[in-house]
Write a structure and sequence with these properties.
It is built from seven helices and four strands. By secondary structure, it is of the alpha+beta class. The chain starts with a strand and ends with a helix.
Length: about 150
């Protein structure tokens, strides 16, 4: 089975940009990914990797004493784990500021921007999996996207 993990950023009403990004891997890929990811978190003494905090060295990263070079080196280790174990990464974004400036009729044709991102990313995933000869099931998981996850499932 192929497993897709998604995380969103931004909400239509209060953000200029909304996006959905994620990775897809098979069972063995996710198992190895999770094992190595957890080991890296433990090695570096951090509970999670969150770019908003990591880039600015705030939150859980604030008191680690890391320089920007240290941060980039640690981030490269996590990127290597992603490259090693996932089939592909995907990202779709919508210019919410522009969408809000459009007429109500035009916005109605486009629909909900988060759902638009999900539909587009799902299409890209199916196309990628077909290209590598996979035609089985896809198990999606959403991080903190409760409002839309039920609709997407």
């Amino acid at each position: 089975m192929a497993h897709a993990f998604f995380d969103d950023s931004g909400k239509f009403g209060d953000s200029n940009f909304v996006c959905l990004a994620g990775y897809i891997a098979d069972d063995a890929g996710w198992d190895a990914f999770c094992q190595e990811w957890g080991l890296l978190l433990s090695t570096h003494g951090i509970p999670y990797l969150h770019m908003r905090e990591l880039i600015s060295l705030r939150g859980v990263y604030e008191n680690l004493g890391w320089t920007q070079q240290d941060r980039d080196s640690v981030l490269a280790e996590f990127v290597d784990v992603i490259r090693k174990h996932v089939i592909a990464g995907f990202g779709i974004g919508v210019d919410a500021k522009h969408l809000r400036s459009m007429s109500k009729e035009a916005r109605t044709l486009i629909g909900d921007p988060q759902m638009l991102c999900f539909q587009r990313i799902l299409r890209k995933i199916v196309t990628k999996l077909q290209a590598v000869g996979y035609d089985g099931a896809i198990s999606p998981t959403f991080d903190d996207w409760e409002e839309y996850s039920v609709r997407c499932y």
